[in-house]
Amino acid sequence: MYNVAIVGASGYTGGELLRMLLNHSEVEVNDITSRKYDGTPAHKIHPHIRDSGLVFKNKQPNELDADIIFTATPHGASMKIVPDLLETGAKVIDLSGDYRYRDTKVYEKWYGLEHTSDIKGVYGLPEIYRDEIKKADLVGNPGCFPTGAILSSYPLVDNDLVDRIVIDSKTGVSGAGVNPSSTTHYPNIADNVNPYKISSHRHVSEIQQELHGFEDVKVSFTPHLVPVIRGIQTTSHSFLKEEHSDITPDELRKFYEKTYGKEYFIKLMDDGEIPHLSSVRGSNFVHIGGFEIDDTGRIVMLSCIDNLVRGASGQAIQNMNIMLGLDETTGLNHFGLNP
Asked: Active site annotated at which positions (predicted)?
């Protein structure tokens, strides 16, 4: 049995980590930390987590004794504590943006923060970096938007089929975090679709990094906030290179089947079947569909994920399983909630 600690466990991602880890057969959660809620039982903050016996503690990194530590801390805070956590001998999975970037200058540009850590993490997208994750002591867990966007487009860039991708994503309100704001206030969200940061969302840099950077493929991204609690539905419009203009939808599907055919958590939709948020809610699955090409050479691909599970805590547990040499699906092999 492996010991697990969660640093900054009071937010939505912390609650999801607890929900799934407490049902995991190979780990035991022995520490959850929070400065604000020091001494507070877990169920007072996460009402669905009852009778766990866990209490929030304001512990320093060197006071934690764990095999795996999840850092569910704000951007900029993780880099200040992760080096000390690694010194304890634990493996660390960081859910902030601090260790997702190969070039820290890109992080500094998009996050407006100085990157003060010289430690490098492995980008935690298992379907692409599984071998690297197996050997890693530090994993930078991907952002929620990038997870759906990258996985729905990766076979296209990996096979050099396209030179431009325009990504449109609709996200549930839980993606904004646990702290309320005027943006997430119910009257401002209900019966509405709100685009935001239409050309400057920082997740575009993460998507660009993984879809062959800024040179090989041009990537544009616009997010929209929609009146649902969980989920991200992404529509990717990709434009075929001239030399591939005669590709057919059946041939396109074969590229995806070759890339993801053995991946447990990625489900490719049947022809004419559209991914739905309700089908992945509460699960670690990614549903990918579309496979259509119009007369202009535009490929339309769609993906759905639960932003709190596959877009955050579930993917973090998937990475944990890989790092510990466990079956990758352990604690995660439950289907979504429908309706």
From this structure: 144
* Nearest in space to 22 (alpha carbons), one of 52, 53, 44, 57: 52
Give the pLDDT confidence of 185-213 residue by residue, as tens digits: 999 999 999 999 999 999 999 999 999 87
Model confidence pLDDT, tens digit, residues 221-254: 999 999 999 999 999 999 999 999 999 999 999 9
Tell the CATH topology of 145-307: Dihydrodipicolinate Reductase; domain 2 (3.30.360)
pLDDT given at position 215: 77
288 three-state secondary structure: strand
Catalytic residue positions, numbered: 144
Element (H, E) at 238: strand 232-240
Residue limits of CATH 3.30.360.10 in the chain? 145-307
Please tell me the distance from the alpha carbon of residue 268 to that of residue 281, in angstroms, as a whole number. 16
Q: What's the order of all strands across the beta sheet hosting 286-293?
A: 194-195, 218-225, 162-171, 232-240, 298-305, 286-293, 266-268
Scan for tokens 């010991």, then name that residue.
Answer: 3
The three-state (H, E, C) secondary structure of 78-139, written as one string: HHHHHHHHHHCCCEEEECCCCCCCCCHHHHHHHHCCCCCCCCCCEECCHHHHHHHHHCCCEE
CATH 3.40.50.720 range(s) for the chain read 2-120
2-120 adopts what CATH topology?
Rossmann fold (3.40.50)
Is the model's pLDDT at 339 over the cut of 90?
no
- Is-contact 335 109, C-beta < 8 A? no
